[in-house]
Write a structure and sequence with these properties.
It is a single chain. By secondary structure, the protein is an alpha+beta fold. The protein has a single domain, classed as Glutaredoxin (3-Layer(aba) Sandwich). 56% of the residues lie in helices and 11% in strands. A four-stranded mixed sheet has the order 2-1-3-4. α1 runs parallel beside α9 and α4 packs across α8. It is globular, with a radius of gyration of 16 Å. It starts with a strand and ends with a helix.
């Protein structure tokens, strides 16, 4: 692998979901490694003074229409989650814990959560719904909950988030190729150019 794409992500971002559906193919076609780096988008927003574009009604309406256009272009399902915005602190701790403790199950884990949020429109703010989603996909909710309370896992997510901010990240998805930052799933063509 000659190059890498560092993918800073938070499950709660629909644009990040779209990038997630495309980056593995882009990296495979360009003989590049894809490195997933979970971060807490709320922490990034707080540190940078940024906010979700969905908080501005007109911009939010446009953003979801535009994301729908991209989903159609990519040929992937996307459904606006009626529970948006989702507080992702516990989810992102779980993701970080799975990456650290059970890396072999990490791809299936984030896949089931992205699908639950952005295809099935489920409320992952509710512990019972999270437990149901995990059980449906062969994960033990009690084991995942234990990961979210692991101090090493909490510290890793915090460190990832702080590192993202230090590197200039202000939102999600954010991707680095070498030292170059690319923000937004609508910048994937620039990532492909950088990898070439």
């Amino acid at each position: 692998m000659s190059k890498t794409v560092e993918f800073y992500f938070d499950l709660g971002s629909p644009a990040t979901y779209l990038a997630y559906t495309q980056l593995p193919r882009i990296c495979a076609e360009n003989d590049s490694a894809l490195i997933y780096i979970p971060m807490l988008l709320g922490g990034v927003f707080k540190a940078t003074g940024n906010a979700s574009p969905a908080m501005i009604p007109a911009k939010g309406r446009y953003m979801f229409e535009d994301l729908d256009r991209y989903a159609k272009r990519y040929g992937v399902p996307l459904k606006f989650n009626p529970h948006f915005p989702i507080n992702t602190l516990m989810l992102m701790r779980a993701v970080t814990g799975m990456q650290l403790r059970h890396p072999e199950r990490f791809p299936a884990f984030i896949d089931c959560l992205f699908k639950a949020l952005w295809v099935d429109g489920r409320s992952l703010d509710e512990p019972a719904t999270v437990a149901a989603v995990l059980t449906e996909h062969g994960f033990a909710p009690e084991d995942v909950l234990a990961l979210t309370n692991d101090e090493t896992v909490k510290a890793a997510l915090k460190d990832n988030t702080e590192t993202a901010v230090k590197r200039g990240v202000f939102g999600a998805p954010s991707m680095f190729v070498g030292g170059q930052l690319f923000f937004g799933q609508d910048r994937l063509d620039f990532i492909e150019e950088a990898l070439r």
